[in-house]
Design goal:
Elements (H helix, E strand, L loop, with lengths): L1 E4 H6 L1 H11 L2 E5 L2 E6 L5 H10 L2 H15 L6 H15 L1
Length: about 90
Amino acid sequence: MKVASVADVKARLSAYLQEAESSGPVVVTRNGRAVAVIVAPTDDDDLEGLLLSRSPRFRKLLDTSRASIARGKGETHEKFWKSARRNDGAAR
């Protein structure tokens, strides 16, 4: 993992993008503190996971779902997938 200042990344962005693709994440710092990370997604699923992991709306949805499950209002795995298959067929 490489660490670089904002000023250096601004001056050499292409090089840091290549670095992220070939060697892994690049931590971007300002005044010695991490402020961003340059990450090259491996595929569309990886990109989606990265974006969802930082989404406040998605995190709220997960928190709400976890709370519901903790209150005993969750569905079984089998019931969930049966409902999902039924809804998927209706959308077509």
